[in-house]
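Notes from the 1:1 (GR / supervisor)

We went over the backlog. Supervisor wanted to see one worked example end to end before approving the batch request, so GR pasted a single chain during the call. The sequence is below; no edits were made to it. Supervisor asked that the structure be written out right there so they could see what the output format looks like.
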Amino acid sequence: MFLEILSPEKSIFSGEIFSVKVPGEFGEFEILKNHAPIISSLKAGFVFIINRDMNKQKQEIKGGVIEVISNKIIILVS
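Structure output shown during the call:
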């Protein structure tokens, strides 16, 4: 899967990943390969990324929107 996290000022993350966990408005959820298409709002919290080498990292966000289509994930954050 390919993930991009973008803010109005810059690209925060761009690369191939294994999974990503995000703070949805109604609870945290995880995106894995071949996830159904989805658009959802995000609340303040942390985005947890596991890359293809199984290394973990996290990125704090203040809120935003996630879109998942055909193993491409775009997260727009404020």
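Supervisor's comment: The chain has a mean pLDDT of 96.
Batch request approved.
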